[in-house]
Design goal:
Layout: H1 3-25, H2 33-56, H3 59-66, H4 70-89, H5 96-114, H6 118-146, H7 158-164, H8 173-191, H9 202-218, H10 233-239, H11 243-250, H12 252-264, H13 270-282, E1 301-307, H14 321-329, E2 331-333, E3 336-337, H15 344-354, H16 365-368, H17 378-384, E4 388-393, H18 402-409, E5 413-415, H19 430-441, E6 448-453, H20 466-479, H21 485-510, E7 517-523, H22 532-539, E8 553-555, E9 562-564, E10 568-569, H23 570-580, E11 603-604, E12 609-611, E13 616-618, H24 628-647
Parallel strand pairs: 1-6, 1-7, 2-9, 3-10, 4-5, 4-6
Antiparallel strand pairs: 2-8, 7-8, 11-12, 12-13
Helix pairs in contact: 1-2, 2-9, 4-5, 4-6, 4-8, 5-6, 5-9, 5-11, 6-8, 11-12, 13-24, 15-23, 19-21, 20-21
């Protein structure tokens, strides 16, 4: 055996022993953090030394093996540099696995290029650089709006994403740097001298591949218990549940390849998922019991209003008296959460209408699963009880494929911009939208359940927003210089929602239906497109999860105002409404809980973290005994939702 190979094996063996000690005795659990940190850094430094010794030692080795691949090396270094700048610019952090995983993917590029002639090698390098640069260019634009990265699975919602980001995307130094880098590297590759290629065997190249894989795994994060795989590096790689975390650990070029493979790969787990769900539901009982609030609204009508980006910072007795009336005169849920999932609004709609956690790993629910149907949905349950269930939105119906999604949710009809005869200007005003829809939305001769999505509260929060421009002078006169103009534009946009609610009250009174109608008002998500520094400072938010704390009001003219402080979330709304309206359903099929039952609620987030009302934890964290029941429930709930969506398990057919 060659002495260099033997030395590498000795070094690897030593590092494997250290990893074994770490996993066996010092896996991070809060009791041995100092030793754990020492082992982690020792493994990283040792792995780096192995890499240097194997690939860059001695100097003659570099000249012999890497100089002839100079065009490939330049391409790889440019991609890594642009990737690191992208990570830095957008506030992400590089993990210890980043270096080895990025070198690994670039080494595969080197391997491929080494089998090609100079002409085809240069073409390949240019293609790789162009692909990576275009990808990073548009990821940076996307990140400006959504504070996340897009997936190829979202290609079907590209149009919606562009429209949602209207007037919010701005060019930056990074995009200019990407363009300049591509041009410079193309020129440099063209001017490089023709190299003499070394003759390395395929076995030698494959050995290097396996060495890099070993270094990646030596530095990976492992869960405290092997059963808790969520958020470990291996689970992150296989599921790509968080694209931000994936880039921090593996780099953007790895994300391109992994995301494409996931997008194109078929589902081989269908049969196993059906068996899993059958077994689960056959062994579970519906434990929901009647409570003092059961049937409170029996046989009443329901207006379910989802205010676009609605937040309580817009609720004011003077500026928004109708929103204030809902808050003060009905049930005010003061500890309610509306978690944000990958496709924001449409995911909020899925939670409220199905009581399920939206897709995290498979792409947008409203695109990937837009042909699913749900026997247990809000609309289908109200339909079975004899209600006319209809949905309303002032944008066009195909946005987020709602024309398909709402059919699967069981609505008799979805009324959109064109069916309501709204111009592009009219649709921006919630009050105008309601005037066009009110006689369909509020029926005098039928019991109805109308699900209403507003639009005026959507960004941008400037004079470009027609609704915000209309009401801004009034907000400006009220707050003066005491509030930033962007916040004032936001409140002005929400004033249009207030005007719509006022018209709702007037129409219900005119039709003698005010006491016979329940109004629910909540939001689809927090205003994530608002300047987040302004938003966090104004609301005194210290942790990201706190942004999801959101308004929920349930109003009926016969109620006495009350504040409800128990922890609730969007997932709980469906079973709660079924209980309040005394509508029959099987509560086993909802992840959420009736807000008036004895069963505690918890809030689920897209990064597999859970909020219990007292504690925020991740599914891979070390947990105290008091949190084990919460953990077991969360683990099951995430799995149930994923498998139900993938198999269309609750289909009416």
């Amino acid at each position: 055996m060659h002495s260099k190979t033997r030395n590498i094996l000795y070094m690897l063996g030593f590092l494997v022993v250290l990893l074994g000690i770490r996993l066996g005795f010092f896996l991070k659990d809060g009791t041995n953090d100092t030793v754990e940190s020492f082992l982690i850094w020792t493994l990283f430094i040792g792995s780096f030394l192995v890499f240097v010794y194997a690939f860059l030692y001695p100097k003659a080795y570099i000249i012999y093996r890497w100089s002839p691949q100079l065009s490939t090396v330049i391409t790889g270094l440019t991609v890594v540099t642009l990737d690191l700048l992208f990570i830095y610019k957008n506030g992400m952090e590089v993990d210890k696995t980043y270096f080895f995983s990025t070198v690994f993917i670039l080494y595969l590029l080197f391997m491929g290029a080494s089998f090609l002639s100079l002409k085809w090698r240069n073409l390949m390098n240019k293609a790789v650089l162009l692909l990576a640069s275009i990808y990073l260019f548009f990821q940076d634009l996307y990140f400006q709006v959504f504070n996340d990265l897009f997936s190829f699975k979202e290609a079907g919602t590209l149009r919606e994403g562009v429209e949602s980001a209207e007037n919010m995307i701005h060019a930056s130094w990074y995009q200019a740097l990407v363009v300049m880098s591509v041009l410079l590297v193309f020129i440099l590759i063209k001017r490089l001298k023709r190299p003499t290629m070394p003759n390395y065997s395929l076995a030698s190249k494959l050995t290097s591949v396996f060495l890099l894989l070993a270094l990646i795994n030596l530095n990976a994060d492992y869960p405290v218990k092997l059963a808790r795989l969520h958020t470990s590096d291996h689970y992150l790689y296989t599921s790509v549940f968080s694209r931000k975390a994936f880039v921090e650990n593996y780099g953007s070029f790895n994300l391109i390849i992994r995301d494409l493979s996931q997008t194109l790969a078929p589902d081989f787990e269908y049969k196993g998922s059906i068996e899993f769900l059958d077994t689960h539901f056959e062994t579970q009982e519906d434990t929901h019991e009647s409570n003092p609030m059961s049937g409170l609204f029996k046989d009443k009508n329901l207006l379910y209003i989802v205010g676009e980006s609605f937040d309580e910072l817009a609720v004011n007795e003077t500026l928004t008296p109708n929103l204030y009336r809902l808050k003060q005169g009905g049930m005010d849920f003061t500890n309610h959460y509306v978690p944000v999932f990958p496709r924001t609004t449409c995911d909020g709609e899925i939670m409220m209408n199905t009581g399920l956690i939206p897709s995290i790993e498979d792409g947008p629910t409203c695109y990937t699963y837009n042909t699913n149907s749900y026997e247990t949905s809000l609309a289908n349950r109200f339909n079975e009880a004899g209600y006319l269930s209809q949905a309303f939105h002032s944008n066009y119906k195909a946005f987020y494929t709602r024309d398909l999604v709402y059919d699967g949710l069981g609505y008799e009809a979805l009324y959109g911009q064109h069916t309501l005869d709204l111009s592009d200007a009219d649709k921006r005003y919630d009050s105008v939208f309601f005037e066009h829809a009110k006689d369909i939305m509020i029926k005098e001769d039928d019991r109805f359940m109308s699900f209403i999505l507003t639009l005026s509260g959507h960004s941008p929060y400037s004079d470009v927003n027609l609704a915000a421009r209309k009401h801004y002078p009034e907000v400006d006169a009220y707050y003066g210089q005491d509030m930033d103009s962007e916040l004032k534009y936001y409140i002005a946009a929400q004033m249009e929602l207030d005007r719509m609610v006022g018209l709702v009250f007037e129409d219900l009174e005119a039709k003698n239906l005010l006491e016979e109608t329940v109004i629910v008002l909540t939001t689809d998500h927090y205003p994530y497109t608002l300047n987040q520094t302004l938003y966090e400072d104004h609301k005194k938010i210290h942790e990201p999860y706190q942004k999801s704390k959101a308004p929920l009001y349930i109003y009926n003219e016969g109620l006495t105002g009350m504040k409800i402080n128990r922890l609730t979330s969007s997932l709980d709304l469906l079973p709660t409404l079924l209980n309040l309206f005394d509508i029959e359903s099987d509560y086993r099929y909802y992840i959420g809980r009736d807000m008036f039952s004895q069963a505690p609620s918890q809030v689920y987030f897209k990064d597999y973290s859970v909020y219990t009302g007292d504690t925020l934890y991740s599914l891979s964290d070390s947990l105290e005994d008091g949190l084990l029941a919460s953990y077991e429930k969360a683990l099951l709930d995430y799995e149930l939702s994923k498998r139900i969506l993938r198999t269309d398990y609750l289909s009416k057919d």
